[in-house]
Write a structure and sequence with these properties.
Blueprint lengths: L3 H10 L6 H13 L4 H6 L4 E6 L5 H11 L4 E5 H14 L6 H10 L4 E5 L6 H16 L3 E6 L13 H14 E6 L17 E2 L6 H11 L8 E5 L2 E5 L1 E2 L3 E5 H5 L5 H10 L2 E7 L7 H16 L3 E6 L3 H5 L8 H11 L23
Parallel strand pairs: 1-4, 1-5, 2-3, 3-4, 6-12, 10-11, 11-12
Antiparallel strand pairs: 7-8, 9-10
Length: about 350
């Protein structure tokens, strides 16, 4: 079992004193981690499901406890999990229960599994995650889920919701359900970064973006090109070892899926999004792609720089044409704060090869 004082100390180092709902989650997580996998398989509750509004500390609390857990563990974002499992299912030998076989192999050696930002909006994903959770619970895997949705609001589409009901019932039966209902939004209260990351309006932003790109790329130069991302061509303004600089229309205005953004995040540690016309966010498909992009960059603590015609967070207010827009707004607030530590290394060089940037 994790020493509660160790959790309190780790949170205190981040300037956090747990509120009532956060403490309920800490208690549930500590109970889950008390004992081993065999003990978990015998318990009524083999997981913890934390849900609530964006920014209420779900990931903050679970990440803190997860870091202290000494068992064999794995943390994965939902988009990456769906991609990886689908690939494995396609490659697996035929069997009467191919998904179950793949799930058991994927879970081998994993004692604690942590899904951050768990959600289900698609019936195909619902089928996959339902069978996976059933298999994981049968294997005795301890599971932690964080979500913006209480279990009964998963897969809200009335056409398909009832087909997911058995999985919802399984979650309600086997998981401690903890609602994060505190008033404080931790992301909104972060201090803005000393390095400006979002620029608006678009007038004269080119020089600012160049300065950022050159600051992290030792061989910085503007070389417009087409690069391949997830098997599709992506026109870019510049691509270095750490940063890719791309227009918003090319990145989110054309048909792409979350697979494109996963591939992009695996290749670069930061993205400069240029010429974001916020009127495009009123299109449902464009908005959904932007939500996916932010989710994937945020999960990896990758850098994000944006040049838009007006402040992008203000432009998102009141938009509901895609899933989880409120989470995106909250994450954008954190991603421009000093508390969001980006995984970029400054370039060390005496000269910069700058080409025309106009």
């Amino acid at each position: 079992m994790i020493d509660p004082s160790a959790i309190a100390h780790a949170l205190a180092e981040k300037g956090i004193v747990a509120d009532e709902s956060q403490q309920r989650a800490i208690d549930a997580l500590s109970a889950l981690l008390d004992g081993n996998r065999a003990d978990a398989a015998r318990r009524a509750h083999r997981g913890v499901y934390c849900h609530g509004l964006p920014g209420r500390g779900k990931s903050l609390i679970v990440d803190t406890v997860y870091a202290l857990a000494s068992c064999a563990k794995r943390r994965i974002h939902f988009h990456q999990f769906i991609r990886d499992i689908n690939r494995l299912v396609v490659q697996a030998p035929r069997s009467d229960d191919r998904l179950g076989d793949v799930s058991r192999a994927w879970l081998d050696g994993v004692d604690l599994l942590y899904f951050d930002e768990f959600h289900v909006h698609d019936i195909a994903d619902a089928f996959l995650i339902g069978r996976f959770l059933e298999t994981a619970l049968a294997c005795g895997t301890r599971i932690v889920l964080t979500s913006n949705y209480e279990p009964r609001r998963l897969l809200p589409d009335p056409e398909f919701h009832e087909r997911f009901a058995p999985t919802i019932q399984r979650i309600e039966h086997h998981f401690d359900i903890v609602a994060f209902d505190g008033a404080r939004d931790y992301r909104e209260q972060r201090v803005e970064s000393t390095q400006l990351r979002y620029f608006a309006p678009l007038d004269d932003t080119r020089e600012a973006l160049w300065t950022i790109f050159a600051g992290y790329e030792a061989q910085a130069a503007i070389h417009p090109a087409d690069v391949e991302v997830a098997g599709r061509s992506l026109p870019v303004t510049a691509a270095g070892k750490q940063l890719v600089w791309v227009d918003f229309d090319a990145l989110c205005g054309t048909p792409r899926s979350h697979l494109d953004y996963l591939a992009l995040a695996e290749r670069w540690r930061g993205v400069i999004v240029d010429r974001l016309d916020t009127a495009m966010l009123r299109r449902r498909d464009v908005l959904q792609r932007f939500v996916w992009l932010i989710d994937i960059l945020y999960d990896r603590k990758h850098a994000l720089f944006i040049a838009s015609d007006q402040p992008v967070r203000a432009a998102l207010d009141g938009l509901d044409g895609a899933h989880d827009v409120s989470r995106t707004t909250s994450r954008l607030a954190e991603m421009q704060s000093d508390g969001y530590v980006i995984a970029l290394e400054p370039a060390h060089r005496s000269t910069v090869s700058q080409e025309t940037i106009g």
